[in-house]
Amino acid sequence: MIDILPFLVIGSLVLLIILFFFIKVLNLSGKDGSGTKNKKRKDRNAVLREANRKLSINPKDTGALSALADIYYTDGDIEKAYKAYGALLNLVAMNPDLDEYTINLRYGLCAMKMKNFDEAYKNLAIARTMKQDVFEINNNLGIIEFQRKNYEKAAALLRQAVAEKSDLPETSKYLGHSLYKMKKFKESSTMLRKALDLEPDDKESMFLLAQSYFEQSQSDKALKIFTHLRPDPVMGPHAALMAGTINLQLKNFNKAIMDFEIGLKHQNLTSDLAMELRYRLGNAYSNTQELGKALALFKEIRNINPSYKDVSDLIKKYSELHSNRNLQTYLLAPTSEFVTLCRKITQNMFKKSRVKIIDIHVNKNEYADVLAEISTAKWEDVILFRFVRTTGQIGELFLRDLHARIKDMRAGRGFCMTPGEYSEGAQKFVEARLIDLVDKQRLMDILQKSDRF
Fold first, then answer.
1. Does the global pTM surpass 0.85?
2. Residue 310, in any domain of the structure
3. Which of 61, 221, 338, 397 has its CA 20 to 30 A from that of 122?
């Protein structure tokens, strides 16, 4: 029988040795992360000590400066890296072994972060002469060109940057802003939407996107964004002004009033913006026939700046309207009220007459034509009355159109009424034609008498 005891002893020893080495390996691997870090830290510190030692002997030691610059740049110590690369720049011309491209690139990027934009531009531009397809170069040069208001150059650089890396909001933002400044609104809106997809809280880009929509006559999209931005403490006042302006154009006068009032509640208003908000709010009130409120705003503006736009003329106009309800209706009321007043004037234009209104035609909000059969004890005729709503000057061409209309309607005579005035050419045109011109003074008399009809 074979004695197995020696084999058991040898096997146990082998197992113990294997187990010892296995535990040792585990311990080493468990310490690998921190051990590597500690080694790197020791290596870094050693490099720093050695580099500083060499520089104390020779301040122009390019190897030591390069080592320091690389460590500072990797650590994100921008100010120290900037100084180190700056020192290397002074030595590039005398040492062809230095990496001129990397030195210019990193010095320019450090200068950019320190907001030394002139230095950044100069060195990044030098780096770009060596490599033109580097994102960091094109992106930063594009931003600087934008800040310098060189929008075409900025757009060209930023287009290339976006092509190289399309997932950074800053690049899309500045490209969108540059395109907007170049009045390329369709391209601008595309890039601004992309920027907002990446950074939804960028209120400045949001405002410019709305402006781009507005410039493309996409009022609904623009209005939605401007309305959303009204409460913002920075963009809010301008957004309220734009929202109100669009609502004025859409004849949403009550909404426009709300927009302008929200704008005026902001604390950070410039004097110019506050004046414009008051001016447009006054115009909005005039369209809702709240002339007292409109006049108060226009007078407030006049007290601050008497020559602001046409406020003096508006005060004169609305003061007159405020004291004459019929004139107010004639110029400002909705079409239905205006037409009712025109019918009333037509029916009472001639004393002791019988009036039959045949046709009424309204041309937008500019004038209304009322065709009527008039019968009196001495005569009867078909007369076309044109009631003009503008306070401006009526010219010859307008009266030629009226004359043609009179012929088309087979009327025997025509009247033109305006709260404005007639040009010399217009007055000469009617001298040999059966058209009576009713100027502002006569119209005012007629409107005053209308209260008694």
1. no
2. no
3. 61
